UniProtKB/TrEMBL annotation:
Family, similarity comment: Belongs to the phosphoglycerate kinase family.
Subunit record text: Monomer.
Primary location recorded for the protein, binned into one broad class: cytoplasm
Subcellular location: Cytoplasm
Descriptive protein name: Phosphoglycerate kinase
Single GO MF annotation: phosphoglycerate kinase activity
Key words, A-Z: ATP-binding, Cytoplasm, Glycolysis, Kinase, Nucleotide-binding, Transferase
Residues annotated to bind (2R)-3-phosphoglycerate: 34, 117, 150
Biological process according to GO: gluconeogenesis; glycolytic process
InterPro entries assigned to the protein according to its UniProt record, in alphabetical order: Phosphoglycerate_kinase, Phosphoglycerate_kinase_CS, Phosphoglycerate_kinase_N, Phosphoglycerate_kinase_sf
PROSITE patterns: PGLYCERATE_KINASE
Associated pathway: Carbohydrate degradation; glycolysis; pyruvate from D-glyceraldehyde 3-phosphate: step 2/5
Reactions listed under catalytic activity: (2R)-3-phosphoglycerate + ATP = (2R)-3-phospho-glyceroyl phosphate + ADP
Organism: Methyloceanibacter superfactus
Amino acid sequence: IKTIDDLDVNGKRVLVRADLNVPIEDGEVADDTRIKRVLPTISKLKQGGAKVILMSHLGRPKGERSPETSLRPVAERVEKLLNGGPVLFLDDCVGPDVEKGLETLATGDVAVLENLRYHKGEESNDLGFARQLAALGDIYVDDAFSSAHRAHASVEAIAHLMPAYAGKLMMAEISALRTALADPERPVMAIVGGAKVSTKIDVLKNLATRVDVLVVGGGMANTLLNAQGVNVGNSLYEPDFVETVKDVLASAKRAGCEIFLPVDEVVAKELAPGTEWAVCDVNAIPSDMMVLDQGPKSIERLKARLGEMRTLLWNGPLGAFEVAPFGKGTLALAEESGRLSKEGKLISIAGGGDTVRALNMVGATPDFTYVSTAGGAFLEWLAGRQLPAVIALASGQVNAKHEAV
Ligand code: 3PG
């Protein structure tokens, strides 16, 4: 993959695909983490004398314009964060008006185009739409790792149409995931949590053959426990996946991967704040109760095992962490992994919205070695799948398929 490190961009129009898909509340950006993470690329291009054109999707508008999915507030935030010179917002992403607007850009200027998904050609990876986008710039830079699992025009087709480079965030994300999975310092532990096994079954399958310890948490753990004969009471679990999970357990065994499950649980009759709760042994879950967090013994055991690890890869909470007091396990784990990382004992890589929220809740984010901006793309990578946008960038040249059209 070619990077922007040694790229001469002086006077060039650089079309940057960023992932500016951020939460908008009351017409304002509610969390600008993703915008901040793309700033190093923007600044480098500006300093190099480029005219920077940012493009992104926001939400899932399915071709329909609406104020809730407009990138206008994002452009305003970009301007604020860049702290120098106005940022030009154009209310479309292709067409003559956009082309005219971009003619006003001077060296070092920045423009933000309107939501790519207002055009159906974006999601259908339409070549004609990609050509219209490509016509706006001289060089293409992809800095949207978190959209790399989508074979969409602005990340896939376009990369075959013009000189294509990876931005700084894209490279940082790829290199962090390689550190954790392709060539990790061992022993390596992966923690996979969340509500449903069905959404992460391929992640479990892949990790079970690659890491030394695989910790399964959240509702997912219930299905694994059930596969081992544990009665999980009234808990969320997926009977249809019990057989698949048994295969995962068997392949982990063959690969010498230890599957780490809770030994005690926090249970309650319902998931509600202030509800009555209790701690019980994993083999004594009452039939009318549901598991909502891992118990204190499980957490201590997990912390001790984590202390023996060199690398941690984490995606998904251990319990219903957004409802107190069921976040104790997840938050204790966030604190402990942050502490070990800060002391230089652990290489820690985390990704996914819930996990990042948990890290933020205890202030552990800065201590982590790497926190990914990606959700779906992070999971696809953990599942061992190749990401279409990364393949397109790596192919590095105009694809015959596209040339022929
Ligand atoms: C994300 O938030 O994971 C990315 O921006 C991709 O968004 P999407 O799931 O709507 O494609």
